[in-house]
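Need the bound structure for iron/sulfur cluster, inputs here:
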Amino acid sequence: MKEEIFLCSICNINSGTCLEDCKFCSQSVRYKADIDRYKQKGLDLILQEAKTARKAGALGFCLVTADKGLNDKTLAFVCGVARAVSKEVPELRLIACNGTASLEQLLTLKEAGIKAYNHNLETSENFYKEICTTHPWSERYETCENVNKSGLVLITGGIFGLGETQEDRISMLHSLNSLQPTSVPINFYHHNEALELEPNKLTVDESLKLIQLTRDTIPHAKRIMVAGGRELMFGERQNEIFAHGANSIVVGNYLTTAGRVASKDLEMLESLNLGIATSVK
Ligand code: SF4
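Answer from helper R.:
Posting the output first, comments after.
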């Protein structure tokens, strides 16, 4: 039987309004990156994106808000969007990615039809203070624990290429493993000139080894997803990520950067004799 790759699409339902100072993130208002900024994306556009994602083969549809965490207004907005998307495109499996969240807020999302919650640890506990000074790593970890308590599926991962050491990477992967996530999205830092961080210095070979290291360190995760930075990091060698343990990718655009057209990814999977997941295992 063909191995099946889980395709996920990201929908930025609120963009570029975050007051935090994560140095890798162009959504922070502090860095004045040249990106679209809006409080709430219109529902018609979200539904259109959901239909397009499903047509492109995506099973996961992730509702992302750019803020440190949920407040009552954002929670109500995400729940409203979740209900509308579930009704219009019921085949999509809804994921929320809305920052720090309490158990109560997560249960409210679950009631609205959200199946999984994504909150990344981003990097090691030790290195985190070098890339963010406005909130602690422990809050990220606690939100992931809340996700597990809520019964939602936990999706948590991180980002490579921020200037962290190999020791930091290993530490982050062990922390992720301790949370027993179902899916682990890994991102490769995509430099934006408005950000203070140096461009990512990882080579393709090093990055492929990091995918394998993620797979080996978190053996029970059902999915290792290569998310942001795939095209930029791997270029013509994107097809090699699957032989190194990846079994999930983000299709279409990322939060603030363009991905390649979904048909190119589908062609790539076909050429590798890989199938597309049509249900969640
Ligand atoms: S909290 Fe999230 S949205 Fe805000 S700057 Fe950090 S990574 Fe970006």
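Comments: The chain is about 35% helix and 15% strand. The mean pLDDT is 94.
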